[in-house]
TrEMBL record:
<dbReference type="InterPro" id="IPR011047">
    <property type="entry name" value="Quinoprotein_ADH-like_sf"/>
</dbReference>
<keyword id="KW-0472">Membrane</keyword>
<dbReference type="InterPro" id="IPR050482">
    <property type="entry name" value="Sensor_HK_TwoCompSys"/>
</dbReference>
<keyword id="KW-0418">Kinase</keyword>
<feature type="domain" description="Histidine kinase">
    <location>
        <begin position="768"/>
        <end position="962"/>
    </location>
</feature>
<dbReference type="Pfam" id="PF07730">
    <property type="entry name" value="HisKA_3"/>
</dbReference>
<protein>
    <recommendedName>
        <fullName>histidine kinase</fullName>
        <ecNumber>2.7.13.3</ecNumber>
    </recommendedName>
</protein>
<dbReference type="InterPro" id="IPR005467">
    <property type="entry name" value="His_kinase_dom"/>
</dbReference>
<dbReference type="InterPro" id="IPR003594">
    <property type="entry name" value="HATPase_dom"/>
</dbReference>
<keyword id="KW-1133">Transmembrane helix</keyword>
<keyword id="KW-0812">Transmembrane</keyword>
<keyword id="KW-0067">ATP-binding</keyword>
<feature type="transmembrane region" description="Helical">
    <location>
        <begin position="719"/>
        <end position="743"/>
    </location>
</feature>
<dbReference type="InterPro" id="IPR011712">
    <property type="entry name" value="Sig_transdc_His_kin_sub3_dim/P"/>
</dbReference>
<dbReference type="Pfam" id="PF02518">
    <property type="entry name" value="HATPase_c"/>
</dbReference>
<dbReference type="InterPro" id="IPR036890">
    <property type="entry name" value="HATPase_C_sf"/>
</dbReference>
<feature type="signal peptide">
    <location>
        <begin position="1"/>
        <end position="26"/>
    </location>
</feature>
């Protein structure tokens, strides 16, 4: 039953509200529902110094900025219903609930005032602010709070106080039929009262605000308002008004005083009435709107009256609309939806003429002048030309539905649904040829009609003389036609989709479908976008009026100054949310708009200087938690998600306002924009560093806000990114490197020790082999050789004895070579060279060929390997052997010398020469063993060259590195020794230990 009763009550209230709103439709500036506030019972309103609207209702306190409604509460709040909204000198918002608790809102947080003991009070307090003090009524007398330091105290006067009123230099206090005045110096001072006595059964309450020196007091249920004044030490009643109804509140505004009864609100200044709303508060915001709080209908608003007025054309039929407008000699030439052309004088408000363009003509969608008195009219089905003075109308048969035209001294250029047309002003072969050449012979020519045409459906057109080009939008893609033919017009290498084209003041203006407006000059193209203050990305129409451009787009109306090349933001424009704008024109300092709700007009006047847009940084959230706005916020590394909430108190067109913002660093200061109506800006995963957040609100009508929001903050580097940590990490890394290096040295010295041990063993073994071969095998071979020699001297020696003798001699020579090669003392370059010269000289001892040899003067002390020593010896021996056997020379020369890098060997003769390309192995008729020679040289990474110049000249170059013994460094550096000592490497592994 209870729920059914509430449902009936809500239905009745809804019907009553619909009835009241229906009655208000006839008013020019009706009261409307503001927005969907969650309750219909509101007790108080307050507009703070920034322009935000504060709302106290049965659901608590909320703040509204035109878009966002933020509700505030405190966990210790024992009831939600609130009233008495106040704002102190420090920006705090004060209120109390009906259980007597007093709260204040600061930095987006609601705080309970502990010093006011609400549990000891019978009623909720009445509060006022007086200078830097908050005064509240109390059963103990008067509660006084210092708003600077938030310390409070009670002033006892042996009676309770029930209401307060603030005068210029004092506060009037009402108690139990007793009156006081209060100020900081004198405290409470009793006043005498000269007026009607208080009657039992009535409640007497002062209104907290006063009008000049007048104090207002409500008397309920009698429904009386008393006017009081303090004169010296006397409170005098100067007037009273009987309303006969229960008085909810009295609202004092700077220019008015409203008595709000449960039936009607009355203006004491103008006599105006607002009936049927059961209002509780009336306030004016900084834009000039009036806000009403109702106990039945919630939050209501009466917007500031729109500057636009209605233009009534007497001859316009009922239900007909003005679709197109042109200025003709300060009169309005208008085309209507029903196909009429009307010339209207806005000064005299009379119609000069009205004609039907054609019986079959549809709406006149476009009007354009082709000279002072002749105009083109484009209807929805045909195109006409009219002479205004004679009113003669001619249909252009072949041109259907003109969308736009322009002209120059040669021709008229028309974009239409039936094609693109160029109509010369005169029939002339010379002019025709000029047109053909100017546009690259793109057009076809009709000799009968004397025009050029291109059968492509066109939307808009403009001739740009600075580039001698015709710009035309075909299927929304923009093309440029000039002497080089027809090509797409590109911006930043992208196609341009144009909806409107205008040539004005040596510039071409392009209204695009989704890329703002482009301004084309002779050698440059500039984009006007949201960054420059343009509100609409999509531009439907650009209309030139008085050397300026009016922009109709997806957003509100805007004006572009073509001389300064900037958007103008200091003019007040009408509200365009309720109707569609078809066309606009200027005449007699007025702007006329053809809209779906009729022909409207408004004066082009600048905004007052005090109507600048305001913006404020309301709060900052870090990792989704609200933080206090310090002068400079210092955040930890993980606190890198930062959100800024911007408050912009604006109510007429709040959702059109956007924010330009920048998060500046040392290297980046790029400006970005929010979407219209957006009020939060979020940055996530910010890197460590210093930042400055800058933001400013932009209203398409009022321009940018009066102040720039600027807030600096920093994000610390993580502990692993600190300088100390980096130094410690570098030291640790260095220690690791040193330790690794020391380990490498340790292994190297151990390996060197093993290598040295192995080398000593190898050398000892070589020495043993050499000694045994010399002592044992050598002596045995020598004995055999001696016996063979003795046997061969015998007269009866057989031929085999001579063979044995020869074999033993050869074996003896080879054994000597092996002994030489294995002997440790021969492992150096000097011994090698001496040995080679000795062996070669011994080879020529019994030959008739002359040997010419040359020893080097300086031989480096170089330890060489056994293998390289033997290879070099056999290499030289084989070359000389080949020369002896095959060269047929009488002289053979041998020369060996060295430098810092290589060993050089030269063998030459005066014989028949050799063929260097013949690489047949030794033993061939002509090969001379070149294959073996090349193979040995390759093993030593050497180089062979053969020349024939009165004999063979063989030159060999062998790098010393190919001969040198590879061994560990003999000595460690001082640094290496220091590291081994530092890391306590065992001494026996160190060099020389």
């Amino acid at each position: 039953m209870y729920k059914l009763f509430l449902l009936k009550i809500n239905l009745a209230l809804t019907l009553l509200l619909l009835f009241v709103c229906a009655n208000l439709k006839a008013q020019d500036n009706p009261i409307k529902q503001a927005f969907e506030f969650p309750t219909k019972e509101i007790y108080d309103l307050h507009v703070d110094k920034h322009g935000f609207l504060w709302i106290a209702s049965d659901l608590g306190v909320a703040r509204y900025d035109g878009i966002n409604c933020v509700h505030f509460s405190n966990p210790r709040q024992i009831s939600l219903g609130c009233t008495n909204l106040l704002e102190d000198n420090y920006g705090r918002i004060w209120f109390n609930n009906f259980n007597g608790q007093i709260f204040y809102i600061e930095h987006e947080t609601v705080t309970l005032l502990e010093s006011y003991k609400f549990n000891n009070e019978r009623n909720f307090p009445r509060m006022v602010l007086f200078h830097d003090q908050l005064l509240a009524t109390s059963d103990k007398g008067l509660f006084v709070l210092n708003t600077k330091n938030l310390t409070g105290t009670y002033i006892s006067n042996n009676t309770y106080t029930s209401s307060l009123a603030v005068l210029k230099n004092q506060v009037l206090v009402h108690g139990d039929k007793v009156w006081y005045c209060y100020n900081e110096a004198a405290g409470l001072k009793k006043l005498s009262y000269a007026g009607d006595e208080e009657i039992n059964g009535n409640v007497y309450l002062l209104t907290k605000n006063t009008y000049r020196d007048t104090v207002y007091m409500m008397v309920n249920p009698a429904g009386i308002v008393k006017k009081l004044m303090v004169l010296n030490d006397t409170l005098k009643q100067v007037d009273q008004i009987a309303f006969g109804r229960f008085i909810n509140t009295i609202s004092i505004t700077p220019n008015n005083q409203w008595i709000n009864t449960n039936d009607c609100s009355y203006s004491l200044k103008t006599g105006e009435k607002v009936q049927g709303y059961n209002l509780s508060a009336i306030v004016n915001d900084l834009e000039g709107n009036t806000w009403f709080s109702s106990l039945y209908y919630g939050l209501l608003i009466q917007y500031k009256k729109d500057i636009a007025g209605k233009t009534i054309i007497p001859e316009l039929d009922n239900g007909d609309l003005v679709i197109s407008i042109r200025n003709y000699k300060d009169k309005l030439l208008v085309g209507t939806q029903k196909g009429f052309l009307i010339l209207y004088d806005p000064v005299s408000k009379n119609t000069v003429f009205k004609i039907k363009v054609s019986p079959t003509a549809g709406s006149i969608n476009y009007i354009a002048a082709i000279n002072a008195d002749e105009y083109i009219l484009a209807s929805s089905v045909a195109t006409y030309k009219i002479n205004i003075p004679t009113k003669k109308v001619t249909e252009l048969v072949n041109i259907k539905t003109v969308k736009q035209l322009c002209y120059d001294e040669k021709a008229i250029y028309i974009a239409s649904t039936s094609g693109l047309f160029v109509i010369p002003h005169e029939r002339s072969d010379r002019v025709n040829q000029q047109i053909m050449n100017a546009f690259g012979h793109v057009f076809k020519y009709s000799a009968i009609d004397n025009y050029f045409y291109l059968r492509l459906r066109c939307r808009t057109i403009a001739y740009f003389p600075n580039q001698a080009s015709l710009f035309v939008s075909i299927k929304n893609s923009l093309f440029k036609i000039d002497k080089n033919g027809m090509k797409p017009f590109l911006f930043n290498n992208d196609q341009v989709y144009a909806a409107s084209l205008v040539y004005l003041n040596n510039r071409l203006y392009i209204g695009t479908i989704s890329n703002g407006m482009l301004v084309v000059e002779k050698d440059s193209v500039k984009r006007i976008s949201v960054q420059n203050g343009l509100f609409s990305k999509s531009i439907f129409k650009i209309k030139p009026i008085d050397k300026n451009l009016w922009i109709l787009g997806s957003g509100p109306l805007q004006l572009f100054n073509t001389q300064q090349k900037v958007l103008v933001d200091n003019y007040e424009f009408p509200d365009r949310s309720a109707s569609q704008v078809f066309d606009l024109e200027g005449a007699n300092q007025m702007i006329y708009l053809a809209t779906s709700s009729g022909l409207e007009n408004f004066p082009l006047v600048k905004n007052a200087g005090d109507k600048r847009l305001k913006n404020y940084l309301l709060y900052i959230k870090v990792n989704n938690k609200i933080v206090t706005k310090n002068s400079k916020l210092k955040l930890a590394y993980e606190e890198n998600n930062v959100l800024f909430n911007i408050g912009i108190p604006a109510y007429l067109k709040a959702r059109d306002i956007y924010i330009k913002y920048c998060l500046a660093t040392k290297t980046d200061s790029t400006w970005l924009t929010t979407e219209p109506g957006e009020r939060t800006i979020h940055f996530s995963s910010l890197m460590p560093g210093n930042y400055t957040f800058k933001a400013i609100a932009v209203d398409p009508r009022l321009g940018v806000a009066d102040t720039m929001i600027s807030y600096s903050f920093s994000i610390d580097r993580p502990w692993w990114g600190s300088t100390i940590f980096k130094i410690m990490l570098a030291l640790l890394f260095l220690l690791i490197i040193l330790y690794g290096y020391a380990i490498m040295l340790r292994k190297r010295m151990a390996l060197k020790k093993a290598f040295d041990t192995q080398q000593q063993l190898i050398l000892a073994e070589r020495q043993r082999i050499s000694s045994e071969m010399h002592d044992d095998i050598g002596s045995g071979v020598f004995t055999i050789q001696s016996l063979a020699n003795k046997a061969s001297k015998a007269g009866n020696a057989s031929p085999e004895i001579d063979q044995i003798k020869n074999q033993v001699n050869e074996l003896s020579a080879k054994i000597r070579e092996v002994i030489w090669s294995t002997h440790v003392g021969n492992d150096n370059l000097e011994m090698l060279i001496y040995y080679i010269y000795a062996q070669i000289h011994q080879l020529f001892e019994y030959l008739e060929i002359k040997l010419v040899s040359e020893m080097p003067d300086d031989i480096p002390d170089l330890k060489i390997t056994v293998q390289s020593r033997r290879t070099v010896y056999l290499l030289v021996k084989e070359i000389v052997h080949n020369a002896i056997k095959h060269s047929k020379a009488t002289t053979i020369g041998l020369k060996m010398f060295t430098d810092e890098q290589a060993l050089y060997i030269s063998v030459y003769d005066n014989g028949i020469g050799i063929n260097p390309d013949n690489q047949i192995s030794k033993g061939s008729a002509n090969g001379m063993g070149l294959g073996n020679i090349r193979s040995r040289i390759e093993k030593l990474n050497g180089h062979l060259s053969i020349e024939n110049n009165n004999g063979a000249h063989i030159n060999i170059k062998i790098p010393l590195n190919a001969l040198r013994v590879s061994e560990f460094d003999k000595n460690l550096t001082k640094w290496q020794l220091f590291i081994t000592k530092l890391l306590k490497i065992p001494a026996e592994t160190q060099e020389g230990k």
